[in-house]
């Protein structure tokens, strides 16, 4: 196990009815708020009216940027920064899923920065401060409600890049599972894949002597598997929705389940290049790419993949080699993704081989990626080809 320094400053208000606490929480951070949200579902469900009423009851002036894209655009972030600066906004509030929250984080760190916010994403600058940020989560997926990560797409350059900073952690996040009842099946699928792959990125590690962390990762994966299909079959199953919501938060909140372990994260970088060009949902891309990354790298530490197969998927190891067990676990992963409605090939979502070299080159723009197995351009290109 490696040494570690773990800090997570986000306050979580979890459970049915916690939305009622929003006005009180927001009022602690100022009298002018920028509200950011996605395509408008919060207006159809009445959530928008609830949120704005609570804010105005507290005397908070509300400015808005709606229509945040599923792969949030740099142009939207820049627009929101301009609005915030022009109106003296003191607090950012994101209502929605990972896209709305990621965009709001970029705005929060971008407002006090004198340069262009894209500088953070291309490693030209580091955030030194941020406006305070709060979130109301409506989609269980990314864990962005309790971490400092943000991913933004520069559509003009077809680049999708992530950035992380302690300054970007939300001050508070409201997690009411009933707000996810209206999430469509495809988004529930994408969220399920996303949270599982977040755990994978930490679990498939070369760091030795981490039994507690491994079992925490395995328990999150098992809980997701046990609840995802129930949520898809009955969208208003509170128990399933609550368990998925908590799993999404635990899967990626600054390293809680993997402190002392070195994660990999190559697959996320590989997928970002696909969705940065083709604008497919992040979870969909990961569902296609991650099992192929597994097949490409599993021999680097075959015993970890065998352990995963036995503990998570209950593969019977009797009479089998570690390789056979490991491959059975990888296949079980692929089968589960298919069972919850995820595609298995890039060709199914309109992605061909014409941009493989471009995507592979950009994925390793700053050098080889991954730690479980270091991947160069040729490795990444091969994983893309395996995914076609």
From TrEMBL:
Fe-containing alcohol dehydrogenase-like C-terminal domain residues are 189-387
Identify this protein by name: Iron-containing alcohol dehydrogenase
Which intervals of the chain form a coiled coil? none
Keyword field contains Isomerase: no
- What keywords are annotated for this sequence in UniProt? Oxidoreductase
Which Gene Ontology molecular function entries are recorded, alphabetically?
alcohol dehydrogenase (NADP+) activity; butanol dehydrogenase (NAD+) activity; metal ion binding; methylglyoxal reductase (NADPH) (acetol producing) activity
Which Gene3D superfamilies does the protein's record reference?
3.40.50.1970, Dehydroquinate synthase-like - alpha domain (1.20.1090.10)
Which Pfam family, any one of them, does this sequence belong to?
Fe-ADH
What do the Gene Ontology cellular component annotations say? cytosol
Record InterPro entries: ADH_Fe/GldA (IPR001670), ADH_Fe_C (IPR056798), ADH_Fe_CS (IPR018211), BDH-like (IPR044731)
Residue ranges annotated for the Alcohol dehydrogenase iron-type/glycerol dehydrogenase GldA domain, each copy included: 9-177
Which source organism? Answer: Cohnella faecalis
Instruction: Report the SUPFAM superfamilies cross-referenced here.
Output: Dehydroquinate synthase-like (SSF56796)
- Superkingdom as given in the UniProt entry: Bacteria
């Amino acid at each position: 196990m490696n040494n570690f320094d773990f800090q997570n400053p986000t306050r979580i208000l979890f459970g049915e009815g916690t939305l009622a606490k929003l006005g009180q929480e927001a009022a602690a951070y100022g009298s002018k708020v920028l509200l950011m949200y996605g395509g408008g579902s919060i207006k159809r469900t009445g959530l928008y009216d609830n949120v704005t009423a609570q804010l105005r009851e507290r005397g908070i002036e509300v400015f808005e940027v709606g229509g945040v894209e599923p792969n949030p655009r740099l142009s939207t972030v820049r627009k929101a920064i301009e609005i915030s600066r022009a109106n003296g906004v003191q607090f950012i509030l994101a209502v929605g899923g990972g896209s709305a929250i990621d965009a709001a984080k970029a705005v929060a760190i971008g407002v006090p920065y004198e340069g262009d916010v894209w500088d953070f994403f291309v490693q030209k600058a580091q955030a030194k401060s941020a406006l305070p940020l709060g979130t109301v989560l409506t989609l269980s997926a990314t864990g962005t409600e309790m971490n400092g990560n943000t991913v933004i797409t520069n559509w003009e350059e077809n680049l999708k890049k992530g950035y992380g900073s302690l300054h970007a952690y939300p001050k508070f996040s409201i997690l009411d599972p009933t707000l996810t009842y209206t999430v469509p099946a495809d988004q529930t699928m994408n969220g399920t894949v996303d949270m599982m792959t977040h755990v994978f990125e930490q679990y498939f590690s070369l760091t030795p002597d981490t039994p507690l962390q491994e079992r925490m990762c395995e328990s999150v994966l098992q809980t997701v598997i046990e609840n995802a299909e129930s949520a898809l079959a009955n969208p208003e199953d509170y128990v399933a929705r609550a368990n998925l919501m908590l799993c999404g938060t635990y899967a990626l909140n600054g390293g809680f389940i993997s402190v002392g372990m070195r994660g990999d994260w190559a697959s996320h970088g590989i997928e970002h290049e696909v969705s940065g060009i083709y604008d497919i949902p992040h979870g969909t891309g990961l569902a296609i790419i991650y099992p192929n990354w597994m097949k490409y790298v599993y021999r680097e530490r075959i015993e970890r993949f065998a352990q995963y197969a036995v503990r998570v998927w209950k593969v019977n190891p009797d009479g089998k080699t570690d390789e056979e067990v490991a491959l059975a676990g990888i296949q079980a992963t692929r089968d589960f993704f298919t069972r919850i409605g995820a595609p298995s090939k890039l060709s199914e979502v309109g992605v061909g081989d014409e941009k493989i070299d471009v995507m592979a080159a950009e994925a390793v723009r700053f050098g080889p990626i991954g730690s479980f197995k270091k991947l160069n351009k040729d490795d990444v290109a091969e994983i893309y080809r395996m995914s076609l």
